[in-house]
Amino acid sequence: MEVGGAGGVEAGVMRVLLVDDSPVDRRVAQLLLSSDSCAGSFHVIAVDSAKKAMEFLGLKDGGKAEQAIDMVLTDYCMPEMTGYDLLKAIKALNPLKPIPVIVMSSEDEPQRISRCLSAGAEDYIVKPLQSKDVQRLRNCSAARPSKTAGTVAKRKPTTTPSTAASPPSGRRANFAGVAMVLQSSGVELSQYLPLLLKLAVLAYAALCLGELLHRWSSGSSCSLSLW
After folding, report:
1. Residue 183 to residues 1, 34, 39, 107, 225: CA-CA distances in angstroms?
2. Pairing of strands 101-105, 71-75
3. Where's the Response regulatory domain (predicted)?
4. Looking at the DSSP assignment, which residues form a beta bridge with residue 124?
5. What tens digit of pLDDT does each residue of 135-188 get?
6. For residue 107, which of 165, 176, 49 has the smallest C-alpha distance?
7. N- or C-end of the chain: fewer Cβ atoms within 10 A?
8. C-alpha to C-alpha distance for 144 and 126, rounded to whole angstroms
9. DSSP state string for 66-131
10. Which residues pair with 202 in a beta bridge?
């Protein structure tokens, strides 16, 4: 659970509760919303499960919210409790002035999108979160609509043509998310090369020894040939 402190949040900064069981996707969203391009518009509080989000919002066992939240950005597929279940719980908390909820998913399924919007989601975004999605988050928070379920059901997802791509695009998006995390954290893959070379030499030596023992045990007079 990566919960940020409540102190130091300036006026006008959007407090976003990020809910995702994937460390990579959480990191991508945090990096994007804290980047210079966002100009300090977001204060991100990250948790790794819908149940922890429920506790943070004071929705579990009559608890009290730890701090005010302007928006919930949640993954759809999570173990134990899904983002869809979290969405319904949040919308049931205060139907007249609900917290805006944006659902994220690596799959662009029309039925899933319709289901989330019908339950009151402000938007549905295909992961990983990208810079072009930031304005959509701002719009959802500023609107804070008070609509009935029937009205919400008629809304259409504001996905752009690039997000409404075929399933392989989700796979490419995941690779892009991993690349973004590696680049931002300054990981130097070259430092692992000596270790990999040593492991390769040890593996080859073990292979040679195994082949030699096998030929000795079989009494073969053939010369050793691993190539």
Report:
1. 23, 15, 21, 25, 43
2. parallel
3. 15-142
4. 103
5. 888 888 655 544 433 333 334 444 444 443 444 455 555 555 555 555 544 444
6. 165
7. C
8. 21
9. SS--SEEEEES--SSS-HHHHHHHHHHH-TTSPPPEEEEES---HHHHHHHHHTT-SEEEESSP-G
10. none
pTM of the prediction? 0.61
First to last CA, the chain: 51
Structure-block tokens of residue 17: 């509760």
Q: What is the Cα–Cα distance from 84 to 75, expressed in whole angstroms? A: 9
Count of CA atoms in the C-beta half-sphere (13 A) of 117: 19
Give the length of the chain.
227
Extended strands (E) in the chain: 14-19, 42-47, 71-75, 101-105, 123-126
Q: Are 143 and 100 in contact (CB under 8 A)?
A: yes
What is the side-by-side strand order in the sheet with 123-126? Answer: 42-47, 14-19, 71-75, 101-105, 123-126
Q: Which two tokens stand for residue 11?
A: 């006026």
Nearest to 75 by CA among 29, 23, 20: 20
Three-class SS of residue 22? coil
pLDDT digits (tens, 9 = 90+) for 95-108: 677 899 999 999 99
Rg (CA), the chain: 25
Peptide bond into 128 cis (omega under 30): yes
**Distance from C-alpha of 69 to C-alpha of 61, rounded to nearest angstrom:** 19
